[in-house]
Amino acid sequence: MESGETGGKLAEMIKEAIRDCELTISEHNQIIAVAGEDGIIDSQEQNLLKQLQDLIANGTIKKVPG
Question: What contacts 42, CB < 8 A, 6 or more positions away?
């Protein structure tokens, strides 16, 4: 998967978490796996992961079992 494809997939996964207002542990692990799929976490992916972490930290997205 090319970097742009990975970023697009990450963005969609994060948007889904925002819509649901929650993120399961399995979804979180999947996001991390997608980010590292090509062996490189580029700046777009870093920004998306930081945004996700910020949303979890401020309570917008809650991490739930699953």
Answer: 3, 7
Angle between helices 25-35 and 43-57 (to 10 degrees): 160
Q: How far is CA 31 from CA 2, 36, 62, in A?
A: 15, 9, 15
Question: Could you tell me if 48 and 11 are in contact, meaning their C-beta atoms sit under 8 angstroms apart?
Answer: yes
Model pTM greater than 0.85?
A: no
Q: What is the dihedral of CA 5, 6, 12, 13, to 10 degrees?
A: 150
User: Which has more confidence, 4 or 48?
Assistant: 48
Element of type H or E holding 62: strand 62-64
